[in-house]
Amino acid sequence: MVSDDWATCEESGSRPQYRGPMAAPGLRAQMDSLLLQLLRDLEELEAKRAALNARVEEGWFSLSKARYAMGAKSVGPLQYASRMEPQVCVYTSEAQDGLQKVWVVRASAQTPEEVGPCEAALRRRKGLSRTPEPESSPAPRDPLNWFGILVPHSLRHAQASFREGLQLAADMASLQIRIDWGRSQLGGLQEKLKQLEPQSA
Amino acid sequence: MLEGAEFYFNVDHGYLEGLVRGCKASLLTQQDYINLVQCETLEDVKIHLQTTDYGNFLANETNPLTVSKIDMEMRKKLCREFEYFRNHSLEPLSTFFTYMTCSYMIDNVILLMNGALQKKSVKEILAKCHPLGRFTEMEAVNIAETPSDLFNAVLVETPLAPFFQDCMSENTLDELNIELLRNKLYKSYLEAFYKFCKNHGDVTAEIMCPILEFEADRRAFIITLNSFGTELSKDDRETLYPTCGKLYPEGLRLLAQAEDFDQMRRVAEHYGVYKPLFEAVGDGSGGKTLEDVFYEHEVQMNVLAFNRQFHYGVFYAYTKLKEQEMRNIVWIAECISQRHRTKINSYIPI
């Protein structure tokens, strides 16, 4: 047996531990699978990012088309209030592997007893309500109605694009959390490997 | 009214007709549009516009240049020309001009009321109102709660007063009611304008009445199209249709019952003018929308108005063509600033 296959008594405390080359392949296999998972996640993230960019671009372009049809002043910052309430909430929760998962929920689906952090999501929000609301809010009004009841189809298109983009953004956030965790795991495993093979090669 | 406008028209209105024809000659040409489409940034657009009749209209704008600034400056220029025409006009051309400004006034009133609903400051909205639709009582519009209030307190002295007959109600003004108010006002306005032109007779009636009939029918189609899937009932919808067009009365009744685009298309196929228009509409996101097709038809009619002399339609046609030009430039500018050049050629050349 080579001396570095066994930890010396001073290093490991009372009992010598076997940290020979047999442990390294297991570690390497673990690293490989982690790396592959990481690369798969990265690819998915890139695809989702491209899709999000496409949706947002499409949304803004549909807004321009709506401006062409309705007149430039009818689709702009004049139409919405400066304070809005969100229609969509972002929830996070712990999944089985201890990672946080992020998703968006429409406000109408939420019950007052829902626990969990609820931050306001960015996009479409409902306008100011006239009367003070009781505990359970009524069906939130569609932001599309800020621009009038009879809106052109390009505006509806824009709303649909932005809504899809929201979902994609939530997925991307979950993926990003997974990727960060994967990277830190990989870093830890690489450290361990380095400690196991100080004299090899 | 005596036939033979060519004998009497130039006495009162000859100078202005000459002026408006000169203005029409300085609209952007196809070559100008080709140059604009090739621009990379909004600064290039500004430079290209300097070589046209627009001149240095953006010279005082501070950086950065935005599409809405361009739009506002173009609108101010149109307003200056229009005010010049109006200040030099005599009756009945002055009444004609007043009728033309009523549509912008209606838009401004609705903008102000919407702003009041969203608790915006009056100053902010006044800055964005259409300059052609300015009237003195504008600042007071936001205090009204119901249409009757609006009429009695604010608008009774303005040219919009006669259009309020069908709109008086005690319902508070929320989004649905504001939209209904807008469409009902516009319907009354269009019908009154049509009657004015028809009573005037002569070449003006021959030119303006078809244009206004098309406008009425266009509104009926667009209201129907946009109301699919909304909470607007069919009866409500029918009350919003202007009745001075070709579709009245059978077409409007059929249109009120339509529930999707294909049913609308079948109604349009009964009318020789509208059948080819609907056939030109592309499917989905690829081809032209109905609004594009209508804008094109409007441009054709307005250009043809300049083929006859001695009528007031040239002023209306010039204003509408200028507005289409502004829409084109804003569209090209938006495509450039969003770097989305695939549909940049969807403007309508004049």
Search tags:
heterodimer; A: 201 residues; mainly alpha; three-stranded antiparallel beta sheet; two-stranded antiparallel ribbon; 5 strands; B: 350 residues; globular; V-type proton ATPase subunit d 2 (chain B); hydrogen ion transport (chain B); ATPase_V0-cplx_dsu (chain B)
Itemize the secondary structure elements and their pairings.
The complex is a heterodimer of chains A (201) and B (350).
Chain A lengths: L8 H4 L10 H48 L14 E2 L1 E7 L5 E7 L12 E2 L4 E2 L26 H44 L5
Helix pairs in contact in A: 2-3
Chain B lengths: L4 H21 L4 H8 L4 H9 L16 H21 L5 H25 L4 H7 L18 H8 L20 H26 L1 H26 L6 H6 L10 H8 L3 H8 L6 H5 L10 H16 L7 H26 L12
Helix pairs in contact in B: 1-15, 4-15, 5-8, 8-9, 9-14, 14-15
Summary of the model, kept short:
Chain A is mainly alpha-helical and 201 residues long.
- Can you tell me the number of structural domains of chain B? 1
State the secondary-structure class of chain B: mainly alpha
Shape of chain A: elongated
Described by strand count, sense and barrel closure, the largest sheet of chain A is:
3 strands, antiparallel
Portion in helices of chain A: 40-55%
Q: Which class of secondary structure composition applies to the elements of chain A? A: mainly alpha
Across the major sheet of chain A, the strand order is 3-2-4
Roughly what percent helix of chain B?
55-70%
What is the C-alpha radius of gyration of chain B, as a whole number of Å? Answer: 21 Å
The global form of chain B is globular
Helix/strand order of chain A, N-terminal first: HHEEEEEH
Mind describing the biggest β-sheet of chain B? none
Distance between the termini of chain A: 18 Å
Radius of gyration of chain A over all CA atoms, rounded: 27 Å
Per DSSP, the total helix count of chain B is 15
Protein name (chain B): V-type proton ATPase subunit d 2
Family (chain B): Belongs to the V-ATPase V0D/AC39 subunit family.
Keywords (chain B): Hydrogen ion transport, Ion transport, Transport
GO cellular component, one term (chain B): endosome
